[in-house]
Write a structure and sequence with these properties.
Blueprint: E1 14-17, E2 22-24, E3 29-33, E4 44-50, H1 54-58, E5 60-61, E6 66-69, E7 81-86, E8 92-94, E9 99-107
Antiparallel strand pairs: 1-9, 2-8, 3-7, 4-6, 4-9, 5-7
Length: 132
């Protein structure tokens, strides 16, 4: 399997392909091995997300939206596996070499938590408050 690559100069994500053919039964979740173990640089995370065409072309999507690969997930047993949900009514076969997901490196920071006894007085209006 070739190394992941950015398909165009403007691509922010690189394609992730299936290492082996996998059958996903209708209405089930399966893991698709990617043949990738990556040491994410400290201060970054790797987001693994669906390619925009994957649900339309294959009838599968990540059940949780996207996955996060931490910088310390890089041991010999830490192959990235793409979790997919088959939302169609038929079994789906993802063939070896199929572009099934994309990866994006994102810089991140960690913050210290502080418990407070009082929060600010103004409120935006609660859940869904921007939908007024």
């Amino acid at each position: 399997m070739p190394l992941p690559k950015y398909e165009t100069d403007g691509s922010v994500g690189f394609d992730i392909t299936a290492r082996e053919s996998v059958t996903i039964k209708a209405g089930t979740i399966e893991l698709i091995p990617s043949n990738i173990i990556v040491e994410v640089p400290k201060g970054y995370m790797l987001i693994v997300a669906s390619r925009s065409s994957t649900p339309r072309k294959h009838g599968v999507t990540p059940p949780h939206g996207f996955g996060i690969i931490d910088h310390d997930y890089c041991g010999p047993e830490d192959e990235i596996k793409i979790q997919v949900y088959n939302f169609s009514e038929k079994d789906v076969v993802i063939e070896r070499g199929t572009k099934i997901a994309q990866g994006v490196f994102v810089r991140m920071d960690k913050f210290e938590w502080e418990e407070v006894s009082e929060i600010k007085k103004d409120s935006r209006g609660g859940f869904g408050s921007t939908d007024k």
